[in-house]
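Predicting holo structure, coenzyme A bound.
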Amino acid sequence: MNYKDTYARSMEDPEGFWAEAAAEIDWYKPWDKVLDDSNKPFYRWFAGAELNTCYNSLDRHVENGRGDQLALIHDSPVTDSQTKLTYTELRDAVAKFAGLLKAQGVEKGDRVIVYMPMIPEAAVAMLACARLGAIHSVVFGGFASKELATRINDAKPKVIVSASCGIEGKRVIEYKPLLDEAIEISEHKPEKTVVFQRPQATASMQEGRDIDWASGAAAADPAECVPVAATDPLYILYTSGTTGVPKGVVRDNGGHAVAMKWSMKNIYNVDPGDVFWAASDVGWVVGHSYIVYAPLLHGCTTIMFEGKPVGTPDPGAFWRVISEHNVRVMFTAPTAFRAIKREDPDADYLKKYDMSKFEALFLAGERCDPDTLEWAQNTLKVPVIDHWWQTETGWGIAANCMGIEELPVKAGSPTCSVPGYDVQILDENGNEEAAGEIGRIMIKLPMPPGCLPTLWQNDERYLDSYLSAQEGYYLTGDAGYKDEDGYLWIMSRIDDIINVAGHRLSTGGMEEVLSSHPDVAECGVIGAADQLKGELPVGLVVLKAGVDRPEDEIIAELVSLVRQKIGPVAAFKKVVIVERLPKTRSGKILRGTMKKIADGQEYKMPATIDDPVILDEITEALLRIGYAQKH
Ligand code: COA
Ligand code: AMP
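Done. Tokens:
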């Protein structure tokens, strides 16, 4: 069936459509109802059914003859090592680790935080939780202790799983001191931690609380898969919201498994047995969905890459991995390709590698600029597919569904709505915009399986943040338009979220940190355009009257405060001190206008501005730190 008919069928008969897809999953108990809509606007997929996500990801493949096939390849240029695990080996490692967790009292519904670098044990920990019906919450390693503590307080984990260190390029980053500090400052205290000791650093262990992974798992009895309800949570993944308090996106077991499995063939066009590589991090949704769950549910070999596109050791790293492991389809963020293009514009490194098995590159996480798209197309000579999604949905909302029908690519657009998603562009009154007109991008409820059913123990925030803008619709937070061919164009966010190297960050969260500095009276953080990372945060800070310390000193303190409170991933390095900030008469800081100034774009004088002269001062200040250049 072509794209148009498949999409139409998913809209006309969603229950039939997804019930068919659900036949690809092994269930202990079938559903009573494919879509339970008895408690609108909360929808539940496969209500009444029971399954186990780990069983579907590992055990059933072993039982069906895939036991000797590689399930996971850990390729780590930063430690100069590779680890390969077959489905049988991965299942056994997961069963043992689940046994360790079980011996610590972890049961169905308990939360386990996973704060780990990109090592196979991170996937083992996630799958072990799934095996027990426990709910994992992975926290990205680039977040600092305070961010980890916020998540500990919200998720209230029984156990935290971590490792002695991560490796960033040539630097060894010790995780355990960060973990200890997070537990120290958090109100909720986990009963135990399990720490994987890597040879690059040895974590000091707290007697009675910290368990050594290796000896603990060796001594554990393997645990069996525990049946859970399709509607039970599989994981919580915290993502930036409009304040410093992250949102705990909940993913259910049943809808997630069905959507993940379906997407592998229909969107990415890969088959069981193929090698699939998502170059991301397990701390992000891309890592959850496409390093761990989807490729394993589909019986693929997944690659976990502990390295960077450049510098580990050179801009040929991606090509090496693709050719060495026979990758068929790869997925990463455009920023990675911008990094490669910058260091090796003529792709000389590519000439060293045999890329004949490689069929398609998928990009997501931020808007893919046409230059990067075209460079990737011309260099790789395979389809390069931009697709659009977010932590909340867990999988593609708009894509060129390569397994259904390859549509013509329009550079700058992630193509059309994926079957199951009724994406509409609405104006302020809730009416659909005409083709070409920009509006709020919304998804008509119900969303397809796999999308968030709610926020962790916070139905109210879920309703407020996503469902209150327009009755019957989910607010994506993105603005854009549909063209006359139905292609979507994602143009900007309507909130304070910025996208730095494919990482989603809240400028509101950074402002909270800057405001906590004793010398700061007020501040605004904007996402200024950056050639490599897409956007970079820039802080504009007004000091309290009477502060006469050197500006450089204060700026250095502010930079290190954000690094300490949010983490290095914020990439917050640019601050400028200004006399005052531009505001509306009602006192709202004009961040949008400041962003336009920083990017050297034309801007309209806001009608409600308090004092227009301030904009000249802002322009001068931004020029001093290399922004606001006219193009
Ligand atoms: N643990 C500790 N620190 C981390 C970290 C981790 N897991 N991940 C990143 N950091 C640190 C980095 O070392 C860097 O620190 P620095 O300021 O001391 O240099 C900082 O956080 C910013 O990291 P990042 O944004 O990744 O920048 P980078 O300069 O190291 O690399 C890219 C830039 C473009 C090469 C890299 O971001 C990349 O490959 N991105 C594409 C893939 C991707 O991650 N996509 C995510 C969603 S699909
Ligand atoms: P995250 O939740 O971290 O995956 O970030 C989701 C946000 O990233 C989306 O709401 C968009 O703002 C942006 N985004 C992701 N993919 C794309 C894309 N292909 N094109 C444009 N923006 C994107």
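The radius of gyration is 24 Å.
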